[in-house]
């Protein structure tokens, strides 16, 4: 099973939606809150080249944010990346 990592903040509605989608699929993920952790925020930016949350990674592949993950799901690619297909 691939390792799924989400960088999140407490007040981000898209972060909550991303977690809900993954939970609905039965995917275990690591959540890294960056609200009060500048080092983790910097790590997220270096890994993704983005400043917004959520930032979602499957193994070392940057998926993008919630909208990007939904697009992958709608076109049938997400389950394969998550090892569910």
TrEMBL record:
Pfam families in alphabetical order: Glutaredoxin
GO biological process: cell redox homeostasis
Chain ranges of the Glutaredoxin domain: 4-62
Alphabetized GO MF terms: electron transfer activity; glutathione disulfide oxidoreductase activity
Keywords: Cytoplasm, Disulfide bond, Electron transport, Redox-active center, Transport
Family: Belongs to the glutaredoxin family.
Protein purpose: Has a glutathione-disulfide oxidoreductase activity in the presence of NADPH and glutathione reductase. Reduces low molecular weight disulfides and proteins.
Protein name: Glutaredoxin
Organism: Chromatium okenii
Gene, per the UniProt record: grxC
